C-alpha cells in the first residue's frame, strides 16, 4: 500500500504471503458532509461523481480492482466480478489483483483466506446475514477444508452499543444454543446488548473454523468509521482482500 492509503488499516493476522487486505476509513476522499471523507457507498445519497472519484482513488492506492456488490443482507456468496455489480453479500476470488470488497457502517465485515494463499473471500455480516448463514455460505463457496481457513473480523458495532430485541436473540439461539452468551440484558426491559464478534466466532467454530482473528473495533464509538446507528445519513467504508499479482 502506498502513502495515499497510509490512514487506512491493515489487518493484523497470520495471513500467508501473497494475501493482501485493507480497511478504509473516512480519510482520503472528497465527499462532503454528511458523507465527508472517503465514502465508497453509491446507494446512500452522496454525489455519484464524488463516489466514483473515491472508488478510483482506492483502486489506484491499493493497486487492485475491487468487485463491488449490491448488498441486501442475504446469504448469497458469489465469485468476484469487478466489472459487474452482483446482488450478493459475499464474494470470493482466486484471481490475483481482483479484490473481494464489502461496504459497511456497523455491520460486520469478515475476511477469509486459505493457508496456501489460493483463494480469498469477504462477507458482509449484519445480524440478519449472520443469522441467515452468510458466513457458512461463503465458506461453502470457497470450497476449502475448514481447517485450512483463516478468518478476520473487521470493524463493526460493538457489544456496548448494539441493542436488539428478543427476536434477534431467539433467531440465533434457536440455531446455536451457545449463542446465548452473546446477549446481555440491556437497561431497557426485554431487550439485549448483542456481540456480533462473538456470534461470528460461534458460528465459524460450529463449521470447524477456529483460526479467527480481529474483532474489537467499534464503528459506533470510533469516529474514523461510518456508523449508521450514530448517524443514519452517512457513508460506507470498505473492507477488502485480494491475492497479490
The mean pLDDT is: 96
Order of SSEs: EHEEEEEEEEHHEEHEEHEE
Strand content: 25-35%
Rg, Cα atoms, Å: 17 Å
| Biggest beta-sheet profile | 6 strands, mixed
Would you report the number of β strands?
15
The N- and C-terminal alpha carbons lie at a distance of 13 Å
Task: Provide an overview of this structure.
Helices cover 21% and strands 25% of the residues. The chain has five helices and 15 strands. A six-stranded mixed beta sheet has the order 4-6-9-8-10-14. Strands 1-15-7-2 form a four-stranded mixed beta sheet, with no helix packed on it. It has a three-stranded antiparallel beta sheet with strand order 11-13-12. Strand 12 and strand 13 form a beta hairpin. The chain is globular and about 45 Å long. The mean pLDDT is 96.
Brief synopsis:
The protein has 245 residues and is an alpha/beta fold. The protein is 21% helix and 25% strand.
Could you give the topology of this structure?
Layout lengths: L18 E5 L24 H15 L2 E3 L1 E2 L6 E3 L6 E2 L2 E4 L4 E7 L3 E7 L5 E6 L1 H6 L1 H9 L6 E5 L9 E2 L1 H10 L7 E3 L6 E3 L1 H11 L5 E3 L22 E7 L2
Parallel strand pairs: 2-7, 3-5, 4-6, 10-14
Antiparallel strand pairs: 1-15, 6-9, 7-15, 8-9, 8-10, 11-13, 12-13
Amino acid at each position: 500500500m502506498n502513502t495515499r492509503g497510509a490512514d487506512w488499516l491493515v489487518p493484523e493476522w497470520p495471513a500467508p504471503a501473497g494475501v493482501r487486505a485493507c480497511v478504509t476509513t473516512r480519510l482520503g476522499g472528497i465527499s462532503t458532509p454528511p458523507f465527508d471523507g472517503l465514502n465508497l457507498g453509491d446507494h446512500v445519497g452522496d454525489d455519484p461523481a464524488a463516489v466514483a472519484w473515491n472508488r478510483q482513488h482506492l483502486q489506484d492506492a491499493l493497486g487492485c480492482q475491487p468487485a463491488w456488490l449490491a448488498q441486501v443482507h442475504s446469504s448469497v456468496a458469489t465469485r468476484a466480478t469487478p466489472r459487474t455489480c452482483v446482488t450478493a453479500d459475499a464474494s470470493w476470488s482466486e484471481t490475483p489483483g481482483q479484490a473481494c470488497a464489502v461496504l459497511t457502517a456497523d455491520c460486520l465485515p469478515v475476511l477469509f483466506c486459505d493457508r496456501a494463499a489460493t483463494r480469498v473471500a469477504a462477507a458482509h455480516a449484519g445480524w440478519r446475514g449472520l443469522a441467515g448463514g452468510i458466513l457458512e455460505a461463503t465458506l461453502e463457496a470457497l470450497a476449502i477444508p475448514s481447517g485450512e481457513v483463516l478468518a478476520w473480523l473487521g470493524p463493526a458495532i460493538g457489544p456496548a452499543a448494539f441493542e436488539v430485541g428478543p427476536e434477534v436473540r431467539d433467531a440465533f439461539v434457536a440455531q446455536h444454543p451457545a449463542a446465548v452468551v452473546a446477549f446481555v440484558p440491556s437497561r431497557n426491559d426485554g431487550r439485549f446488548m448483542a456481540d456480533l464478534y462473538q456470534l461470528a466466532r460461534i458460528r465459524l467454530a460450529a463449521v470447524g473454523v477456529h483460526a479467527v482473528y480481529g474483532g474489537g473495533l467499534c464503528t459506533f464509538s470510533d469516529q474514523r468509521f461510518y456508523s449508521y446507528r450514530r448517524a443514519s445519513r452517512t457513508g460506507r467504508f470498505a473492507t477488502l482482500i485480494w491475492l497479490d499479482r
